[in-house]
Amino acid sequence: TPASISLRGRAEVTQGGNRLRADAITMFRNAAGDPDRVEATGTVYFVTPTQSMRGDRAVYTINNGEVVVTGNVILTQGQ
Hints:
Elements: E1 4-15, E2 18-29, E3 35-47, E4 51-61, E5 66-70, E6 74-77
Antiparallel strand pairs: 1-2, 2-3, 3-4, 4-5, 4-6
């Protein structure tokens, strides 16, 4: 199992009702080979059923569901 998987060019990753889309996405695995965190760069969109975020970079930590979006961030909740 590779330590990381890289996607380039309108890359998209989904988990449940969450969607992460960006110009480049890299998923990192922990020592057991399970997905651990996802880093996205370029024009980044993170969309959940109740909110959407746009920024230049995002780090999504899978085990605790934390998303940190940085750089020209816009957050929209609800309608």
